[in-house]
What does this fold into?
Amino acid sequence: MASKYIIGVNMEFVRSADKSFEEGVKIASELGYKYVEPMVHTGWELLSEVNYFHSFSMEEDPLLMKEICDNYGVTAGSISGHSPLMKPEAAIPRLTRSIVLASLIGAKYVNTDEMVKPDWMSEEEAFQIMRYTLKKIAMVAERHQIYVCIEPHGIYTRSSDGLLKIVNLVPSPWLKVNWDTGNAYLAGVEDMYEGLEKVKDYVYHVHAKDISIEQSENERGKVTGTPVGCACGQGVVDWERVLDILDPLDREIILSVECGTIQQAKDSLEYLTELIDRRS
It folds into this structure.
């Protein structure tokens, strides 16, 4: 297998359990994860301040995040810095700080998507604004040598062609793809595996998100994404086929599990570890 997979977990897995960032890292470590994907925010968020929410404030010293991870033998391999590319007054400062934080703690990837297009904005305006946002962000990413990975989640990125159009708005080796298996499946505008084939040369990070049969029946083709999925291996995603597409890529790829519960995180790690080991 040419591609070196790293299995991590997005900190959303403790959101429904009302756990703090540190408690989430501790639980991830106890489950056997060596990598996590923290979510970050600007300002001081109430639930995080009283330890009921896992997001980490970028008002804190970034090295505090590293210190917490180090204490539990865990590495922050990527940062969930999702920001609205069509809202540069929010996205540029937020992604800039996410990139700086990533560089300080040793993470290599910052993940984002285009998020929501305001009703008053035309499609032409949307792409002009996203180009401006990404041009500013690409310069920061280059200075810090951090990959900014755009994922399928919104009205434009729900198709592989739309995703590639955004990634290529600005010529930069630091703008890549975070392939979200669950979002790509739920969008329902194309075969998810054919879409992955189209964008695979840009894929440096994967949100390993499975979708339950029930959610698939209720939402496929009606939404462009979902916050979390079910445990990997317990839904509709063909993980063997996903890895068949990714295997030839000669680079490190993080498979960051996005699920809704602690038990699902445990089951996902066991499933993906066994699958990758079996294919090695």
